[in-house]
């Protein structure tokens, strides 16, 4: 009797570089959205609150989706870029003539 021949299934895993690209892309897009939303509020504390809330939600969602744990990885692969993009868009949109 011949043994059953089971076709091999290829499983593709994301490498570290692709995970970093995905994380950075998501954080850049959410940073742009947060910067624009923050510019709609005149109060600094509301703007900062929106930015921090979106940063926390985005960071948790990305680390959960990519199955990465640790604040060090998250800050290096999205957190700092998010803050820089948010500030840049917020200042630009805040200073646009109405």
Describe what you observe in this structure.
- The protein is mainly α and 98 residues long.
- It has one domain.
- The radius of gyration is 20 Å and the shape is elongated.
- The termini are far apart.
- The model has no long low-confidence stretch (mean pLDDT 84).
The computed structural class is mainly alpha
pLDDT < 50 runs, ≥5 residues: none
Number of helices: 3
Number of domains: 1
Cα Rg: 20 Å
Please state the overall shape, judged from the principal axes of the Cα atoms. Answer: elongated
Indicate the percent of residues in helices. over 70%
What is the count of β-strands? 0
Q: Give helix and strand order, one letter per element, not per position.
A: HHH
How far the N terminus sits from the C terminus, by CA atoms, comes to 82 Å
Strand percentage lies at: under 5%
The overall pLDDT, averaged over residues, is 84
List the helices and strands and how they pair.
Blueprint: H1 16-40, H2 44-65, H3 71-94
Concise structural overview:
The chain is mostly helical.
Question: Key terms for this structure?
Answer:
98 residues, mainly alpha, 72% helix, 0% strand
